User: What shape does this take?
Amino acid sequence: MIRLLLLFVIAWNCIATPAPPSVFRDEPPAAATTIDPFIAAQAAAMRPEYVADLTQADWDRYTIDIQLDPDRLRLDGQITVVLTNQTEINFDTIWFHLYPNHPDFGGRLDVTSAHIDGIPVPSRTLHGDTLIGLVTPRLIAPGDRATVTMTFTAHAPRNASRRTFGAYNMEAGVWSLASFYPLLARYIPGIGWDTRPIVARGDFTVSAIALYDVTVNIPFGWDLVSSGSAIEDRGLADGRRQVRFVSGPQREFYLAALQGLQQVSASIDGTHVISYVQAGDTAAGERSLAIATTALGVFNQHFGAYPYAEFEVIQAALTQFYGMEYPGVVLIEQNLYRRDDRLLETTIAHEISHQWWYGLVGNDAQGEAWLDEGLASYSQILYYELTGESAQAEAELNAFRATYRRLRERGGDAPLATPPSGLSNGRYVPVVYAKGALFFHALRQRIGEEAFQRFLVGYVESARYREIAGPDLLRAAEQACACDLSDLFQDWVVSATAVAIP
Ligand SMILES: [Zn+2]
Assistant: This one.
């Protein structure tokens, strides 16, 4: 996400484990023909070179079937989640986030029935219905699987971006349905089930990688955009159509229904990129497409490959922030397309870098937001360096320096590891984005250009599709430089030492 600072002041918010058992696993080994149909369908979401990633881990599987009613901004659906207990403890309750019930979403998400392994189960909710816990009919032991099925209804607000989170809202031709379904809570080492109340400062979603197979039923006349790729699209007799998407390994499944927007598209490194813009902003739409393909291209080179077949940029009414990242999709505030400055470019680059920092490499956005936001902010600088715009890169850096300096002058400095809940009084953006970006600049100065580059690539390679914490980033950096960085980490991340501003 981008919430901005300063000069242009505002905000961006923004293992290999054994292959899963095939459904035909009792067949003889000659089963080179053994095909898991769920996995086979997922291949369409990946660039061909990365199809093998699909069997890299035993990810949870979501199958979602929904009907959209755009007139009433309502959806009805069914969800099945096949999950494996990958922790060390027995589960007696399985927790799901119901994000639309948070006041910032201004909507509703209600679970109307719940079964585990076919057995109806009782449930309870927490924190204003933003979490639902399903009581398991048996203990789910480490390594065990369970199949959770729920029916649900959801409702979104209209023209609400001035007062609520614009990514769950119908406005400016975009019915954006971020987090519209029950999303399995993470089991976080050291925390347990993530049943913390949501802190509205920064990004909401904390989730693990999963595979999604989603079928959407909607009236004709709407374009659908999602975290996945469409593998079926057929007309129904009643003036509606049905589209089925598969996601590949993604951290959540984003969905939007668009009406009246135009699209332009291009390809970069085997990924099809589409930019959706309002009718009056065609030229800026072409520009947004060029920025997006350039950013994906340079980040592919510099961080490691974006492995998915599709990527979309949507012009949307976010109003209270500049951009918002989702797996495979970014939303960009509509007014940035009409400005005569670098903000559209900077915002698109920032949000696209989240495909690596948040998407591929996951972290606890409600606990250690600096891990993704700090590196996404520093990626703005890398983007301008890599595209030959060194003066703009320096301007970005100077903006972060000035923001952090002012934070220090007013006595607001805090360790990077401070959770968003502890960063009140306007300290969230200066600490997480500005100080966060400067930490990566300090790291680069300390270990040198080559080791910093090795760190970025090695970090993605080792943490891809996983969730990391601060010490994991430290280890990746120390591995890249073959040196001890504990003092740097201590001064910036763990304590609020008055560090030299790099
Ligand atoms: Zn961000």
